[in-house]
Design goal:
217 residues, 4-stranded antiparallel sheet, single chain, binds flavin mononucleotide
Length: 217
């Protein structure tokens, strides 16, 4: 496996074939994810894997909650974002728009309701964290997520991290009997990409490295 190649190739997939994924394959992906490093090897991640009719039920619940509350994809910042970040988000949307136009869909509706439906993926994975942990342990969950999306890519599967669903955490916990003391940190759509859908041709750009790095020598 060429890790760097996989890292450069991977991208979020926003249209999936309904074909189911064998449970053994999902387990293989999760087994790789839990090789992620974690502080003091606490391995704080917990995965809830939702498939089949239960996944459809979850999607229906989330779409209903979204239509009622209208909390869509947003960075959820606590203060106004410095301009650099706002510009990056706007640029990404600008670059995605031609694909949405080609699909004759509204970008907002496609991404918000699509996220609630895990973009039609047959598998929804929720990454949870016990609420006794400090926020710093989100780092560990993030690394596991990174391992997950790369492993899936290696197997020819597509993923899309879905942060939007955390706005509907109560509804998710109710539906899936997730205990009160577990936080749903992030969801992931997992499935076979449908390459015939235009949005899957979109590859988001990255800013130049110099924009992110300050060398102290
Ligand atoms: C924490 C996190 C939350 C995200 N939430 C969503 C989401 O709710 N809906 C969505 O369509 N994409 C979501 N994404 C995907 C990002 O939009 C995507 O990673 C970003 O635009 C970069 O594109 P790439 O993954 O194709 O490289 C999320 C990504 C991360 C890391």
């Amino acid at each position: 496996m060429d890790l760097i190649k996989a890292m450069n190739e991977r991208k979020s997939i926003r249209a999936f074939k309904p074909d189911p994924i064998p449970r053994e394959r999902v387990e293989e992906i999760l087994r790789s994810s839990i090789q992620a490093p974690s502080a003091i090897n606490l391995q704080p991640w917990e995965f809830v894997v939702v498939t089949g009719e239960e996944k459809d039920r979850l999607s229906r619940t989330l779409i209903k909650a979204y239509r009622e509350k209208q909390i869509g994809c947003s960075p959820g910042n606590v203060k106004p974002l410095p301009k650099t970040y706002g510009k990056r988000g706007a640029k990404n949307l600008d670059l995605m728009n031609p694909f949405f136009e080609e699909m004759k869909v509204k970008s907002d509706q496609f991404t918000n309701e699509g996220s609630c439906n895990f973009y039609g993926a047959p598998v929804a994975i929720l990454l949870c964290l016990d609420d006794s942990f400090p926020n710093a342990r989100m780092v560990d969950i993030g690394i596991a997520l990174g391992y997950l999306v790369l492993t899936a890519h290696e197997f020819g599967l597509g993923t899309c991290p879905i942060g939007l669903i955390t706005a509907y955490e109560d509804e998710i916990k109710d539906l899936l009997n997730i205990p009160e003391n577990k936080n749903v940190v992030i969801g992931v759509a997992l499935g076979y990409p449908d390459w015939d859908i235009p949005i899957n041709r979109f590859k988001s750009p990255r800013d130049h490295l110099e924009k992110f790095v300050r060398w102290i020598e």
